[in-house]
Design brief:
Elements: H1 8-15, E1 18-22, H2 30-39, H3 46-53, E2 57-59, H4 82-95, H5 98-109, H6 115-133, H7 137-152, H8 168-171, H9 189-194, H10 215-233, H11 237-256, H12 262-283, H13 300-310, H14 313-328, H15 332-344
Helix pairs in contact: 1-2, 2-3, 2-6, 2-14, 4-7, 5-7, 6-7, 6-11, 10-11, 10-12, 10-15, 11-12, 11-14, 11-15, 13-14, 13-15, 14-15
């Protein structure tokens, strides 16, 4: 599939008046889905999809007060400061090359990769991939918004310790899973992740995985593991939305890695693993799908067509992520996981 970013600027101009949230209280996926469509080469679908999606968007929030460059820690996790974060990061992007700003803030924000159910890092990664295609003011602004959302929604998970010794496929079997009877769901994925603070077995998860190998190969191992988790645990709308993020947050790192110093990349990979493991711990009802997975009958092009026809933002993003990962390290589990998600997101 040949990427087509010809509608990226019109789409970002369309979205400039809107903020990061939806009227239903959830996160706007508009810029992420738009970039995913561009990466799939489906520019013709961008504006029709946005016209439908716009009815749920909220206006951009107003600025409150300036965030000092040496005082950025205090407003971390303050979603009401999104506009202030955007202003700070937009200023930095005017003064330094965007890869340098991306690396600086990824180092600072990596422990919070789970923020807003991983939407901060995912939006940042879509913006970075778009900038890799062409640098424009609108795309730099979108990177500022992605990093701002990551910072404003900043959230960490329990756990400490250095890298482990296991591959992700082995490590997932060692992750403590909250017993279903002890789970509480407040209507958001974020709330269930916060509840892991009260589940001591999860704290060991971050120290399980070995991230010392080729970072690109580590991403492939993460995405395949979380695709298997998704395939085994997706059975309705909520589970589809939940486990999509294990895959899309891990593949997000692939767009960031070329711009990160090695130490920052290793930290980001550890926290991406931790975030995906947290989704598994908080929501899984089954172990990952086994090695032998039957691929769907549909071709790649047909799966993309189905995702666009479905229209759900998660359907588009999951399909694009799985098509991308399958192209790099072919495995039927990617296509099977995308197909399962499409089935369960059909009623969205």
């Amino acid at each position: 599939m040949t990427p087509d970013y010809s509608m990226m600027e019109p789409a970002l101009a369309f979205l400039a008046a809107y903020g990061p949230d939806l009227q239903n209280g959830l996160t706007s996926h508009a810029p992420m889905a738009v970039e995913a469509l561009a990466a799939l080469g489906r520019a013709e679908a961008v504006m029709p999809w946005l016209e439908t999606y716009r009815k749920g968007l909220l206006p951009a929030p107003p600025r409150r007060e300036r965030i000092p460059r040496d005082g950025w820690r205090a407003p971390l996790g303050r979603e009401d400061r999104f506009a202030d974060w955007t202003a700070l990061l937009a200023d930095e992007l005017e003064e330094a090359p965007w890869p340098a700003v991306l690396a600086r803030w990824t180092a600072r924000l990596a422990p919070g990769i789970c923020a807003s159910a991983t939407h901060g890092v995912i939006r940042t990664a879509h913006a970075a991939r778009s900038l890799g295609e062409a640098e424009t003011p609108a795309r730099r602004r979108e990177l500022a918004c992605g990093l701002a959302y990551w910072a404003a929604a900043y959230q960490t998970l329990p756990g400490a310790g250095g890298p482990g010794t296991l591959a992700p496929a082995e490590a997932i079997a060692c992750v403590g899973v909250v017993p279903p009877a002890e789970r509480t769901f407040d209507g958001t994925i974020t709330g269930s992740l916060a509840a892991l603070d009260r589940f001591p077995p999860f704290a060991a998860a971050i120290g399980l995985v070995d991230v010392s190998g080729d970072p690109a190969h580590v991403v492939s191992a993460l995405t395949e593991t979380f695709a298997r988790v998704s395939l085994a645990n997706t059975h309705d709308l909520l589970s589809a939305i939940t486990f999509v993020h294990g895959v899309t947050s891990a593949t997000a790192l692939r767009s960031l890695l070329p711009h990160l110093p090695d130490a920052v990349a290793r930290d980001a990979l550890r926290y991406a693993w931790q975030a995906g493991a947290a989704l598994y711990a908080a929501f899984a009802t089954a172990p990952p799908a086994p090695a032998d997975v039957e691929p769907p009958r549909e071709s790649l092009e047909t799966l993309v067509d189905m995702a666009i026809a479905n229209g759900d933002e998660h359907a588009i993003k999951m399909t694009e992520a799985c098509v991308r990962e399958h192209a790099l390290a072919p495995s039927p589990v990617y296509l099977a996981a995308a197909r399962r998600a499409l089935d369960c997101l059909a009623a969205a």
